Amino acid sequence: MVIIQSKFIGNFVIGDNIVQNLRVLAVLYAQYNLADTANKRLLCKPIVVLLGSIVEASLHDLHTRIRTFTV
Length: 71
What we know:
Layout: H1 12-34, H2 37-68
Helix pairs in contact: 1-2
């Protein structure tokens, strides 16, 4: 496994949260692809909520970095 150092996310706790949510999304999308129509409807809401939380965490980190002028 290759680890690439990135300074895109300034707060590692937020970065860890984003990575965890992306892993959960991968599992949800895998189940979504295998599911029938009724179960696909059930999986839509958790997928949307996780996507929203990833966007919120990214925007929060970006806003904090802009406000504090850190790179």
